[in-house]
């Protein structure tokens, strides 16, 4: 199809798998050896995200010196090793508790954060959420803030970069306001593609998978995604994808980049 098994398809917007992989790396970097609770409603896409986290921790612990303890809780049965439990019962005192909520539904998130809200005074809890939370309309900001929530987004304006300031000033001069998100995206995508064509010419595809382009607000770190279902001896490129996202911490009701 146009979007799969297509070596000429480039996904500039990071996939949910990329968001999850970067959240996992953030946990490894910031909270080694933490107690992790992966919490998911029994909805296919939410369960899929939870299972990816579960697999990443499982593989990591096979060789890691400082291992994580972790459980995967599905609201379908709320069981760990066949025993009924709750997220609250899986919290541990004296260690960092990383609570990963793989839900895209704001009401589900609000309800469960309300349940554990008082536990944050007794346990050290950091929440990780899905990237759609940043655009939420009804998500309780006090909950998100008090759980020191980590969220991911590829968008981050590097206002200390001279070229970024130049773009902002020129845009403001021409349109009488600072650029918005879509303007940054258009500017950075154009710059990325022009540079890639100039440097690689006809070897465009092979070249973009070996370099990183840092724009005014977006970073493009393109990698090949292979079709794992291929029965041929040679790996088949499914598509090219951008593997770069930022991880932010909600602190004092502001987003602060941490990874």
Oligomer designation: single chain
Q: Please give the share of residues in helix.
A: 25-40%
Tell me, rounded to a whole number, the average pLDDT. 93
Helix/strand class: alpha/beta
Any key phrases for this structure?
about 25% strand, 13 strands, about 35% helix, alpha/beta, four-stranded parallel sheet, four-stranded mixed sheet, about 260 residues, 7 helices
Verbal overview:
The chain is an alpha/beta fold and 259 residues long. It has helices spanning 16-30, 44-63, 106-116, 141-146, 162-175, 181-200, 204-208; strands at 10-11, 35-40, 69-74, 79-80, 83-84, 96-101, 124-128, 150-153, 212-214, 219-226, 237-242, 246-251, 254-257. The strands form 4 sheets. Strands 1-11-10-9 form a 4-stranded mixed beta sheet, with no helix packed on it. It has a 4-stranded parallel beta sheet with strand order 3-2-6-7, covered by helices on one side. Strand 9 (212-214) and strand 10 (219-226) form a beta hairpin. Helix 1 packs across helix 2. The radius of gyration is 21 Å and the shape is globular.
